[in-house]
């Protein structure tokens, strides 16, 4: 199998002396963490075992609560929602799956006794599980004129629940479009009211919905919210706190090991022009696969992504077209003997790239799953070729049409490569068909690619304009359609919204691959909301991102 694009052969005798070349650099801000995560002090064995035993005891208590709520629909809905928001779904997957299956089996959209809060929560939980719940369940909350009833405005829990439910919409669901406009307008009035005690919660909700958010970030926030809820389950709250802190310790240990690998490469010295963002990238990878059973995937995904960042900066901000031609050809051949033709600064990158995939091959050989690394490697080649296309456009001063840009940009946005990379260490649920599904570019992958490319471009557009930089989707759209920057942003944001509807549609049953596989792709799209919602937080790590990372990787939840 090959997914490679043709690369013009370059004579191996050609050499480029990089010290003689005038270069354009991006002047990226430095790493803000220093050696903060280099060392890790674990709990002693006895303490660790006590915590793990306590978690098992609390899990059993929560299972009993789930059983006790089985025939009490409002209580069960709230309990399942709390488990999910607290980041504990991976402990109760079978129980939640069965409960929602039973709920859907007895589901009736015509229930005049169900209030807006419960109707919205039921809709969201079932849609999240992939059930095709009809959106006209919300018709009963409209008046004779076809508008949502004004009486709903006074009930903030119902308005918030309906707002959250609308983010599961697919194409053609006009009633959910209307509900989104209705709830957004009234929630914004609450958000701007300094005297409303719930204004901060509403502001957070409007900024990022539950469905578009990521588990660990949401869990950290919701633990404090749940603690203030007078009707909370004490065993569930204790479990959430203990589990969060135990996972934080596990992630600190993993990050320490990856940091030692990263320091050993010494790219900060050898490639000083590139972004040193290991901690941010590990945090990003946590958003894709934080669960302990996917720790191998997390390690591979982090290492591949930091190597991609190096490659991106070599192609985008430092390498000459002659050097990049040599590197592209060397990666296409994927042969250690190709290293001799590269300039010195590229040699360390090329060697590290080959070593990383050899590490992956060694791990997968133990499980008889070498084929996975083959797919991942071929997608890496394709990724590098997309960077090279953009480098040639920049070298030629060429601004492609928007469609031409996007045909390459959906690849350079990394979604396919990162999805496949996350599959490599996921265990037996992944098959060859999982990788072939990615390569076939189904609507799920295509939509995620669009989200990754467009959100990245819009967030980094202003910084890109301050230096010599390849035209992004923003410039390409402005030029092709003769519109202003703001008009281009408006249109690209519409395309992101459409892509989310595609994703929601593809998550409905029956799915072409197992849901844990689809969830990795979904999480990659979700992480764009964390890093690229308003600005490029990977390149320019501000206080908000620093505090967010600290809350997940440094500061434990008070017990």
Q: Main attributes?
A:
64% helix, terpene synthase activity, mainly alpha, metal-binding, magnesium, disordered N terminus, 559 residues, Farnesyl Diphosphate Synthase
Model description:
The chain has 559 residues and is an all-alpha fold. It has a domain at 240-553: Orthogonal Bundle (Farnesyl Diphosphate Synthase), CATH 1.10.600.10. 64% of the residues lie in helices and 0% in strands. The chain contains 23 helices and no strands.
Write the layout of secondary structure elements.
Blueprint: H1 45-68, H2 73-85, H3 93-105, H4 116-128, H5 156-166, H6 174-191, H7 199-207, H8 215-228, H9 234-265, H10 267-270, H11 278-288, H12 295-318, H13 321-333, H14 344-366, H15 371-396, H16 402-412, H17 415-424, H18 432-439, H19 443-464, H20 473-481, H21 485-506, H22 515-531, H23 543-553
Helix pairs in contact: 1-9, 2-4, 4-5, 5-6, 6-7, 8-9, 9-11, 11-12, 11-22, 12-14, 12-15, 12-17, 13-15, 14-15, 15-16, 15-17, 16-19, 16-20, 17-18, 17-22, 19-21, 19-22, 20-21
Oligomer: single chain
Mean pLDDT: 93
Number of distinct beta strands: 0
What gap, in angstroms, lies between the N and C termini? Answer: 52 Å
CATH superfamily annotation of the domain at 240-553: Farnesyl Diphosphate Synthase
- Poorly predicted runs of 5 or more residues: 1-19
Series of H and E elements: HHHHHHHHHHHHHHHHHHHHHHH
- CATH class call of the domain at 240-553: Mainly Alpha
CATH fold assignment of the domain at 240-553: Farnesyl Diphosphate Synthase
Provide the structure class: mainly alpha
The assigned CATH architecture of the domain at 240-553 is: Orthogonal Bundle
Shape: globular
Q: Share of helix among residues?
A: 55-70%
Q: How big a fraction of the residues is strand? A: under 5%
Main beta sheet: strand number and arrangement?
none
Rounded Rg:
25 Å
